[in-house]
Amino acid sequence: MTYQNLLRNKHLNNVMQIKAKYSAQSDDELFLQELNQLLKPAHDAHLIEPACEKHATIHVIGSPRSGTTLLTQLVASEFNVGFINNLSAAFWLAPAYGIRLARKLNRYQFESNLRSDFGQTNAIGEPHEFGRFWRELLGYSDMSEPCESHEKAIDWNRVKAVQASMLNANDGPMLFKSFLVAWHLKKFSEVMEKSLFVWIRRDLLENALSLLKTRRDYAASLDEWVGLRPKACSTNDFPTVHQQVAAQVYFVNSRIEQQLNDIDVSRWALVDYAMLCSDPNSELDRIFLKAQGLDATIKRRSLSILAQRESKPSNDADVGDIVKLQAAFDEIRDNQESVS
């Protein structure tokens, strides 16, 4: 059997497992949807837009498969910040209620197991990206970069009021893994005056190889986009899977960088994935200093985090994938240089 046939059979098996999983969860999902609809009116009745938030919010941003989950787990373990876990994430239309319930049920100091499966954690106390909440709050149906008019249509007063209610429920600073916020960094920094953006960046090839593996092993189809999709990534311009994945990684990082250049450097920090794995204490220290500048109540719990195993998909990748991705990156860079 050829390598491609092995991949195809593996992918079909994964798709069947995913379908079976979601079929079994359909009743639970319906229950949660109904519960959220019931709770939302009471939750929203207590929203009050504050003049200024009492505590800081830390937002981990980056390209899909760049290390956002690991960074979120480390910050959640080492800083005295609240975060959305797999329990509170069930309350996406009543987030303050979910936060209060999670705090009530677990008063122990959190220590992450630092495990995840394609960005998803399993233990109930582990961080959750809260995708439904962000899509609802910011008016998204998917992860695609919107047109300029979308930002104007967002109810930013509600964004501030909801975030403030979550901070109040936590009674302290909060941490989020905020993919969709990456499309609105400048505006979000103006609305939430104590927000800190932590951008994690990974070697582009390693990032693309990991994203390609996600498409093969997790997505319903190899043609399915996973995570943030920049406007520059039209299927017409990037028809092959390798071109799409390379463009996705390149342009997500480019878009984040463009926005951060317009925001005061005190409001954001850049973390290198390889450095985070080899020397997590130094990287966390840099984040801590920025965060404490916005909120003096933020503290570090430990100063002796062990080095983490750096994931390097290139060690096990098919040579053909590496060649195609490198060629795609070279073509993108050449095109960008010719435009500029």
Order of helices and strands: HEHEHHHHEHEHHEHHH
Examine the secondary-structure arrangement and name the CATH architecture: 3-Layer(aba) Sandwich
Helix/strand/pairing class, anyone? alpha/beta
Terminal CA distance reads: 47 Å
Here the CATH topology equals: Rossmann fold
CA gyration radius, whole angstroms: 20 Å
The parts where pLDDT drops under 50 for at least 5 residues are: none
Strand order of the largest sheet: 2-3-1-4-5
Query: How many DSSP helices?
Result: 12
What's the domain count? 1
Number of strands: 5
CATH secondary-structure class: Alpha Beta
Helicity level: 40-55%
Tertiary shape: globular
Provide the β-strand percentage band: 5-15%
Biggest beta sheet summary: 5 strands, parallel
Mean pLDDT: 92
Outline:
This is Sulfotransferase domain protein. By secondary structure, this protein is of the alpha/beta class. It has 12 helices and 5 strands.
Question: What does it look like?
Answer:
By secondary structure, the protein is α/β, with parallel strands linked by helices. The chain has one domain: 3-Layer(aba) Sandwich (Rossmann fold). It is 52% helix and 7% strand. It contains 12 helices and 5 strands. Strands 2-3-1-4-5 form a 5-stranded parallel beta sheet, with helices on both faces. The relative contact order is 0.15.
List the helices and strands and how they pair.
Blueprint: H1 3-44, E1 57-61, H2 68-78, E2 82-83, H3 95-105, H4 131-138, H5 148-153, H6 156-170, E3 174-177, H7 185-191, E4 195-201, H8 204-217, H9 241-260, E5 268-272, H10 273-278, H11 280-294, H12 319-339
Parallel strand pairs: 1-3, 1-4, 2-3, 4-5
Helix pairs in contact: 3-6, 8-9, 9-12
